[in-house]
UniProtKB/TrEMBL annotation:
Stored SUPFAM superfamilies: Periplasmic binding protein-like II
Keywords, alphabetical: Receptor, Signal
Listed InterPro entries: DctP_fam, TRAP_DctP, TRAP_DctP_sf
Name assigned to this protein: Tripartite ATP-independent transporter solute receptor, DctP family
Alphabetized Gene3D superfamilies for the sequence: Bacterial extracellular solute-binding protein, family 7
Pfam families given in the database record: DctP
Length: 331
């Protein structure tokens, strides 16, 4: 009798081992991946990150779960990009501005006064040009998944209305620590003043700087409108944002799961754009109500701004100039 029990126990153990090694059952084991986000949980891009994660979990039947870490919990943008390159983080939502330090060709998408309007930018990003840029990141151990809206950047200041490029002359304008932005402000005749974003409010308040530049939601959410009521809608920069994946993490996934994730990223774009437009509208309404003065440039005045930054285009490489030409020809 004891022998029968032993044989029965061994049989049960073998069956359990077979089932535990079954590919069908192993495939059900949940894969947990991490996504780094700089912005706060209620920011439009972060909400879109959550939508991206929701779509992936839903479409994989819960097999893949993407955990979103907002508020730079996994590091600021540059550090997060490096971590994604080395596989320490699986995904990152970032502006292409810091990403350009790793993939220099992205400069072509950030040039000043490049896009006629938002519609033009999205035709570029959602077409062959945008797809080629996503694929180009493969060479840097990154997988480009999809684009998000980073808004349109404008100049604002505490002194006066800016109605022409000559009105900017000599003004101290805060810029990001970026050669592109430094050159932009210099060619427009102002004095670029790099400083951390968190110091801008007090610098405007105390007169250390005369103005800054950013999108309207940031102008509102940072309360810069309280100390710089003049804002000129020149739209000098439309810098897209992007979702990237770690190539090493990506290669561990099946082709089917890769396609699900890629499509989920693209599908979350429209949701993000919708949230961004709503946020932008609310920010503009509230700042106007608080006393901000919005200046819309005449076509002639805008042409003056565009002409002033032409030297930035002249010194680009032939390869980048060709891409710029393709972008401008998109109808």
């Amino acid at each position: 009798m004891m022998k029968k029990f032993v044989i029965f126990g061994v049989a049960i153990a073998i069956v359990a081992l077979v089932f535990s090694c079954s590919p069908a059952l192993a495939a059900q084991k949940q894969i947990v991946m991490r996504l780094a986000e700089t912005h706060a949980p209620d920011y439009p891009t972060t909400k879109a990150d959550y939508e991206f994660a929701r779509l992936v979990e839903e479409r994989t039947g819960g097999r893949i779960k993407i955990e979103v870490y907002p508020s730079a919990q996994l590091g600021e943008e540059k550090a997060a990009i490096e971590a994604v390159q080395f596989g320490a983080i699986d995904f990152n939502r970032t502006s292409i501005s810091p990403l350009s330090a790793f993939a220099p060709n992205l400069i072509a998408l950030q040039m000043p006064y490049l896009y006629r309007d938002d519609e033009h930018m999205w035709k570029v990003l959602n077409g062959p040009i945008g797809e080629n840029f996503l694929k180009s990141l493969d060479a840097f151990n990154l997988i480009g998944l999809g684009w998000y809206d980073g808004g349109t950047r404008h100049f604002y200041n505490s002194k006066k209305e800016i109605k022409s490029v000559s009105d900017l002359k000599g003004m101290k304008i805060r810029v990001q620590e970026s050669k592109l932005m430094t050159d932009l402000v210099s060619f427009l005749g102002a004095v670029p003043t790099p400083m951390p974003f968190g110091e801008v409010y007090s610098a405007l308040q105390t007169g250390v700087i005369d103005g800054a530049e950013n999108n309207i939601p940031s102008y509102y959410s940072t309360s810069h409108y309280e100390v710089a009521k003049y804002i000129t809608l020149d739209g000098h920069s439309r810098i897209p944002e992007i979702i990237i994946a770690s190539k090493s993490s990506w290669n561990k996934l099946s082709k089917e799961d890769q396609e699900i994730i890629r499509q989920a990223a693209k599908d979350s774009t429209q949701y993000q754009i919708k949230l961004w437009k709503e946020f932008e509208k609310t920010a503009q309404e509230k700042t106007k109500k608080a006393g901000s003065i919005y200046t819309v440039l005449t076509p002639e005045a805008l042409a003056g701004f565009q002409k002033a930054v032409q030297p930035m285009y002249d010194k680009l490489s032939p390869e980048v100039k060709e891409v710029i030409s393709q972008i401008k020809n998109v109808k």
